[in-house]
Amino acid sequence: MSERERLAHRIDMIEGTLAKGFGSLGVYIAASAAIVDAVRGHAPSFIFTSTMPPSVAASATAAVRHLKRSGAERERHRHMARLVKHVLRATGLPVMDNPSHIVPVFVGDAQKCRT
Q1: Is the Cβ–Cβ distance between 36 and 24 less than 8 Å?
Q2: Confidence class of residue 82 from pLDDT cuts 50, 70 and 90?
């Protein structure tokens, strides 16, 4: 059994963004009908003021379908993240190790972060 399958029964909701990763905008949740109804019931002002237009939903759907079939974009993204980390380290910046595409640079001084 894969790690994903092992954990699947413990997950109640998945939320994500359609922005940077899919070149669209908006967010989504995937959950049981009861959880979705609870979100609708407790956040109606957010949901009904931020409903995405049909054209945006169509573009997000097309992006998701394309990326399900293609790994080229993900591989290029991983390559560029590795390259950025390498270049930053080569210039002496303290890039923190992590397995994701996020490039954390350790500043170590809160005052430097503010100026």
Answers
A1: no
A2: very high
Q: What radius of gyration, in Å, describes the C-alpha atoms of the chain? A: 19
Assess contact for 40 and 47: CB atoms under 8 A: yes
**What's the chain's length in residues?**
115
Burial of 79 (0-12, 13-18, 19+ CB in 10 A): exposed
User: CA–CA separation, 109 vs 82, rounded Å?
Assistant: 25
Closest C-alpha among 28, 31, 48, 30 to residue 40: 48
**Is-contact 63 18, C-beta < 8 A?**
yes
Q: Which of the residues are catalytic?
A: 20
Tens digit of each residue's pLDDT (9 = 90 or more) over 2-18: 776 776 677 888 888 88
